[in-house]
Amino acid sequence: MTEWHKGPCVGFDLETTGVDTSTARIVTASVVLLDAGGTILNQREWLVDPGVEIPEAATAVHGVSTEKARAEGVPAAQGVQQILELLQFAAQQAPVVAFNASYDFSVLHSEALRYGLTPFIPGNVIDPFILDKQMDRFRKGKRTLEAACAHYGVVLENAHTSFADAVACVAVARAIAGKYAELHIAPAELHGQQIRWAREQAESFQQYLRKSKPNAVVDGAWPIKDD
User: What's the pLDDT tens digit per position in 136-187?
Assistant: First the structure.
């Protein structure tokens, strides 16, 4: 299906304990199936006890404290396994949309390995973060989900909750595809294009950084970062 933006999509988002994908633990997760009109057909949310202290800086972003996660969250290994299983199933039904997908899928990959589970290797991911940078390269300003929502006219309520972000990233991806016809290709083919675009974007950013930091390195692996 080349006009994937006019069909069902699966939104995916994680909120975690930190920014390092190799050490961050999942705190909340959402997998949301939306129809062509944006109506939610099915959804699953998790509150996970990550098994470690949640830093105050992370709590300030997503609102989940260590105490809340311990009292109400499912054990990490159980939660990660359920997320993996549902994503495996959902990806067979529709493309999976995640904003800055290399973060979410890299964290999930690390968590799977941490608990001896079979990782999810996606093949039909659509990342509006990559699409936006590729299609509108010279736009100034931030490239966060909130900034993308504002630019493409998407309402984002309760930002930095996994559910709200999962729903919003689908709307942003559809808005970008509605604007740029060159994105109207099969999701698996678009997945392959994004691997190349992410690498090229990282190389360009690394070249820019090295003007002041000669040893700067930017990992361009997508949708799972190199170990």
Answer: 999 999 999 999 999 999 999 888 899 999 999 999 999 999 999 999 999 9
In this structure, the dihedral spanned by the alpha carbons of residues 72, 73, 78 and 83, taken in order and rounded to 10 degrees, is 130
Which residues does residue 126 pair with via DSSP β-bridges, in sequence order? 97
CA 63 to CA 18: how far, in whole Å? 13
- Residue range 11-57, pLDDT digits in tens: 999 999 999 999 999 999 999 999 999 999 999 999 999 999 999 99
Check: CB of residue 189 under 8 Å from CB of residue 212. Answer: no
What is the residue range of 35's domain? 4-209
Domain annotation covers residue 137: yes
Sign of torsion, CA 98 7 90 200? negative
Distance in angstroms (rounded) separating the CA atoms of residues 227 and 221: 10
